Amino acid sequence: MDLQQFQDIKQLLSTPKKIAIIPHRNPDGDAYGSCLALYSYLLKFNHEAIVVSPNDCPDFLKWLPEEDKIVIFENTEEKATKILNEADIIFTLDFNALHRVGEKMQKVLEAVKPIYVMIDHHQEPDKYAMFTYSDSEICSTCQMVYQFIEKLEHLNYIDKNIATCLYTGILTDTGSFRFSATNSKTHRIVAELLDKGADNTKIYNNIHDVNTYNRLQLLSKSLQNLQVLEKYKTAYITLSQKELDDLNFQKGDTEGFVNYALSLKNVIFAVIFIEDRKQKIIKISFRSVGEFSVNKFSRNHFNGGGHTNAAGGRSDVSLKDTVAKFIDLLPNYKDELLEINE
Ligand code: 5GP
Ligand code: MN
Questions:
Q1: What is the pLDDT at residue 1?
Q2: pLDDT at 340 over 80
Q3: 0.70 cut: is pTM over it?
Q4: For the chain, N or C: smaller number of CB within 10 Å?
């Protein structure tokens, strides 16, 4: 997005507007962090702003400042639809294709005619927004929201709550500052956020020190189910609905499990397949190290996408058939998987 467009948005926001801010379905730290930061920022300019989330977040995000003000589409469809219908501006954050909000909410979004503003860091954005601030080289949407506020020359409006939300998303989307999109600029921004009052120790603990006994048992089950395909430098984990039920699965419990598969020496491609009987799908998370693009792999075969090294996808056939399809695909990628230097 060029400077003129940032100026146009600044102009647009110079008088109070009705604004809805939307994260993707199954919101993570970056999705909720960016939405809530933008929400608190917009309220400072007397806008009538509200975050409308397709569904609820995991418990480890429930402490985020103003999280309790979020309207959940899935729980209060009528109220949420009214807000979306009446909005002058809709910001879509941390996703770049309307289907990422789920079928019902997607239909509502396609029917309304607000000014759409996308702020997102995934590859290959769809073209639904009047303003598309998209950059797949930036580690997180939270860093982009910081830069957005910077372009509007409003960094002095960042308070402790906004800093906390932005820090959270940068922390979670960079795997605690270790993924490759983390650079010196990210650290400079993080330093600013600490100066504005973000409490790094508290935020880390809020997110990570929330294990339950059942979650650890579920991790144990995942590691028992871990399969390694040495000749493809690939490892995968499966979790069936029964296994999830037996261990009283709660939203967010499987977060990060796929990284155990990726941490294996000589593995550069890791996958977790999780059965969801309610939605009648297998939810898949793909991770890679180096140049092997899981974004492309997921787009081509599993109706998903994301980033080069982290993507999501889904499958409509059984867990067993999904894994079989996956294994059948690997020979086509053998050269790519073996050529790539770690
Ligand atoms: P996760 O595996 O943690 O659900 O997602 C990894 C990354 O891929 C995240 O950046 C997430 O937003 C993105 N992602 C997850 N599922 C999908 C999907 O179905 N489509 C697309 N385009 N991106 C996804
Ligand atoms: Mn993100």
A1: 92
A2: no
A3: yes
A4: C
